[in-house]
Write a structure and sequence with these properties.
50% helix; single chain; two-stranded antiparallel sheet; 116 residues; 2 strands; 2 domains; mainly alpha
């Protein structure tokens, strides 16, 4: 009897991709390391896509002032880009390419990329 109840509880478990500890499939994040659960559906997909569009437009039109960095929470880098005019445009171009490839992250470490 105990063995079947363990199998049922095991069916609701998965392993954290960062630390490897067992977590519930319904958990938003790992209680051991705090990593987000990649299997949990993303309810904010429209918001994420809007953030990508906003960030890429800010980078393209106001990138030399570092406005896209302020928008994503990187205030220190934003100030440096503001003072150096986006590293004479080079830093802005690099940020734009990073945004297009989907490797840009906000200050919390969340990726900012298009949902296609």
């Amino acid at each position: 009897m105990e063995e079947t109840s363990n199998k049922i509880s095991d069916a609701n478990l998965m392993y954290c991709t960062d630390c490897g500890k067992a977590i519930s499939k319904n958990a938003e994040f790992c209680v051991n390391c705090g990593a987000p659960n990649p299997k949990k559906s993303n309810k904010n997909s429209q918001t994420t896509n809007n953030r990508f569009l906003s960030t890429i437009l800010l980078c393209w039109f106001l990138g030399i002032f570092g406005i896209h960095r302020f928008y994503t929470g990187h205030t220190t880098i934003g100030v440096i880009q503001l003072l150096t005019l986006g590293g004479c445009g080079i830093w802005t171009l690099i940020d734009f390419i990073i945004l297009l490839t989907g490797n840009f992250k906000d200050s919390n470490g969340n990726p900012i990329k298009a949902n296609m």
